[in-house]
Write a structure and sequence with these properties.
This protein is an alpha/beta fold and 386 residues long. It has helices spanning 2-30, 58-66, 86-96, 114-124, 144-154, 171-187, 190-193, 212-217, 231-240, 262-270, 280-307, 310-335, 345-364; strands spanning 45-51, 73-79, 100-103, 130-133, 138-140, 159-163, 165-166, 208-211, 245-249, 254-256, 370-371, 374-375. The chain contains 13 helices and 12 strands. The two termini are 41 Å apart.
Length: 386
């Protein structure tokens, strides 16, 4: 029993140190995008929004862009073969604001994923010195573009990608999404990725402001046309081409309702299971780390309490208490949701891990992954590495 207690003491210490580091990484990320003075000059910015079956979000997205305080703005909405009311909503937007262009990309060529083709067609109609790719579920506050342009030009950034405020209204959103989003922040700490000599970068398709020269030099969306995701591979291509990529914290400037239920969460995350980590080994490591940190302590606490083991129960109870307080604070500060939802973190982490495992199994055995009614192209090889 002494050996078990000793092992659990080491385990507890490791988890406490991990959460101390996680808190430090989060604090360093908070002020990565300070408020900016108006930009010295206003180059043309072409905002490109691909939209497929987005009747729930596209009106709010469009209204946020129309209300921007940045004057030199070009708005390009690409109706990606929508089967709902997206097209009619966009037609109304174009009728009310002459800056809005509605593009119908037509049949996508063989070997292209739908979103990449829509972004490419939007780019072909863009005239801006800067290209801003935004997802249709993103709502922009009036100062988004002016603040982003001012920061990017002053800091000589070639790709500025922002993390929004993720709105979470439903129960499953509050249970599962924090367990998916937080590990990504820790796996790709912005304060490390934003260093000039960083070997890895990440992009967020909800907002990617890219200097046209960098976008074209890195192969545009054509260079990632058959990847399961477009944003992270595109950011990596731009970084590999020698341009500066920067991840900023932008919850005051944009917000996103990512998914509205467990079914959408599962569908949206399956295609990211290997692509987002850029390798099978990294995805498997993420699953193991997630379980070891967030699920196993709760299981061990339950076991020790039932078995009447005082010291193991005390150690695991301490870990669970620290985690609950940490996740409660994060939920309030980062996601603006009630702190009580932190008690669900072991369940949310378990579900997130199972989705990741399912995605890897589907990829390994060639099972189809669909998004918005279409199969997603791209299958990372089993030997792919970072």
């Amino acid at each position: 029993m002494e050996l078990l207690t000793l092992l659990l003491l080491v385990y507890t210490a490791a988890i406490v140190l991990f959460f101390a580091w996680a808190a430090m990484a989060g604090l360093k990320f908070l002020d990565t995008l300070p408020e900016q003075l108006p930009p010295v000059r206003q180059p043309v910015v072409s905002v490109i929004v691909p939209a497929r079956n987005e009747e729930r979000n596209i009106w709010q997205c469009a209204r946020g862009l129309v209300a921007q305080d940045y004057l030199n703005l070009e708005l390009i909405f690409v109706d990606d073969d929508s089967e709902d009311q997206t097209a009619s909503i966009l037609a109304q937007v174009a009728a009310e604001d002459q800056r809005a262009q509605i593009i119908v990309p037509g049949q996508k060529p063989e070997g292209w994923n739908g979103k990449q083709w829509a972004c490419h067609r939007g780019y072909l109609n863009a005239t801006g010195d800067w290209l801003c790719f935004m997802d249709a579920d993103t709502f922009a506050e009036p100062g988004l573009i002016s603040q982003a342009i001012a920061f990017a030009e002053r800091q000589e950034i070639d790709l500025l990608t922002l993390q929004p405020w993720y709105q979470m209204a439903g129960l499953w959103e509050r249970v599962v999404l924090p367990a998916i989003l937080l590990p990504l922040l820790l796996m790709f700490p912005p304060h490390l990725m934003n260093r000039q000599k960083s070997k890895t970068v990440i992009g967020n398709g909800q907002f990617m402001l890219i200097r046209r020269e960098a976008y074209e030099s890195a192969g545009r969306h054509a260079g990632v046309r058959n990847r399961m995701m477009d944003d992270i591979p595109l950011a990596r291509n731009i970084h590999s081409a020698g341009y500066r990529v920067f991840v900023g914290n932008g919850p005051k400037l944009l917000r996103v309702r990512l998914y509205t239920g467990l079914r959408e969460i599962r569908a949206g995350c399956l295609k990211a299971s290997v692509e987002i980590t850029n390798g099978w080994a990294a995805s498997m490591m993420l699953v193991v780390l997630n379980m070891a940190v967030n699920v196993v302590p709760a299981i061990l606490l339950t076991w020790a309490a039932v078995a009447g083991l005082f010291y193991p129960a005390l150690l695991m109870g301490t870990v669970v208490l620290i985690q609950t307080v940490y996740y409660g604070v994060v939920r309030v500060v980062a996601f603006r949701i009630p702190p009580w939802s932190a008690i669900t973190y072991p369940l949310g982490s378990l579900i997130a891990g199972l989705i990741l495992i399912e995605g890897m199994i589907r990829l390994a055995f060639g099972f189809e992954i669909r998004w918005k009614g279409r199969p997603v192209l791209g299958r990372p090889s089993l030997t792919h590495r970072r």
